[in-house]
Amino acid sequence: MRVCDIEELVNVCVLMSTLKKKPSQKSFAFLNMSGGQAAITADLAQLQGARLAEFSAQTLQKLNNMLPDYATPNNPLDMTATLVFDNDKFRAALRTVMADPEVGMMIIGFNPPEIVTERDRHVDYGLAKCLIDVSNEGSKPIVIMPGISRKRDPELRAFYTANSVPIVDSPMYGLSAIKKYAEFCVYHPPDARTLEVVSKKGQSATKVSTETLSEHASKAILKEHGISVPEEYVAKSETEP
How many structural domains compose the chain? Predict the structure, then answer.
């Protein structure tokens, strides 16, 4: 997996260190709390080449029955802000999308606060418990992708992290990291093949086996053929340099 800068690296590390479940396919369902964020998500998905899962007719019908009349079921989905205050409907919407076979990962678009106030504590932790419940029940990873980059309440972030629901940074870096994480999870290295290498003069032939190698194995082959590589060894204790 290749990242472009430190910001993207940090986001990928957050995903890999927090998620316990891996997607079986690189298709994404975006569930947002506002139409504006849904539109931004759609634009970013197109710019970054993230594949939107196509909801089944059954999923669309169930969402249509539970969402307000002014909401239009689609992907990206605008669940509307009304579900912020209705945990039962929010949980039901999450379960509906989780059950769709075309969905590989669920990305939840809303902004966990910088500080959880006592007045809003039941709302913020109510949403968190819904997400964690559905994450524990289902087989697909759930990631929170806020609409803006800023600090998050440390206690709330720790609650999500302890329950394997990561919060990535801004949509630009967050979606890029999510896409690369999904591609990494579904990647299957090609089977080893044997190639015949013939010199330009056709005087000799060598059988070469091609397969995916680790960095250490690659360096060992280079060193064996007289190419200089950095020395390395396995540290056996924390005190070794």
Answer: 1
